[in-house]
TrEMBL record:
It comes from Aminipila luticellarii. This is Flagellar export chaperone FliS. InterPro entries: FliS (IPR003713), FliS_sf (IPR036584). Pfam families: FliS. Keywords: Bacterial flagellum biogenesis, Cell projection, Chaperone, Cilium, Cytoplasm, Flagellum. It is found in: Cytoplasm, Cytosol.
């Protein structure tokens, strides 16, 4: 019974997020998965390591697919997401933790950029146009 209430709360929290908040949450999830993957690798739990890397790849693929290509920034983001996916695949197959160290700052920079764009769009809604993603209806350069 208690679990149902918590799940309902989580669902409502996600449904009431702004597009920018949802995007920031996705970047946070990528970072979390990369941190966990590192920990699993150090514990020699390769199955969980690969599962977390794959989940990070899935999120980046989702972000890539949700881009609204009518905005010029979307083409740049597409190439960046493609690069991140490529590098994460190299992490997974080569089990190279140094690549995680290379990718993590990039993910954090993207997160901070979208956080700032979200902050600015709350002040002036025309600022956020074209920076989005569609997460149900998230639009930050993503359709």
């Amino acid at each position: 019974m208690m679990n149902y209430g918590y799940q309902q709360y989580k669902t409502q929290a996600v449904e009431t997020m702004t597009k920018g908040e949802m995007l920031i949450l996705l970047y946070d999830e990528i970072n979390k998965r990369l941190l966990r993957a590192r920990a699993y690798f150090e514990k020699e739990d390769i199955a969980l390591f690969e599962a977390d890397i794959q989940r990070a790849i899935d999120i980046v693929n989702y972000l890539e697919k949700s881009l609204d290509r009518k905005y010029p920034i979307s083409n740049d983001l597409y190439r960046l997401y493609d690069f991140i996916t490529y590098e994460l695949t190299r992490v997974k197959t080569g089990r190279n933790l140094e690549l995680i160290d290379d990718i993590t700052p990039l993910i954090k920079d993207l997160r901070e950029s979208f956080k700032e764009a979200d902050r600015l769009s709350k002040k002036d809604p025309s600022v956020g146009a074209g920076i989005g993603t569609t997460t149900s209806s998230v639009t930050l350069g993503v359709g």
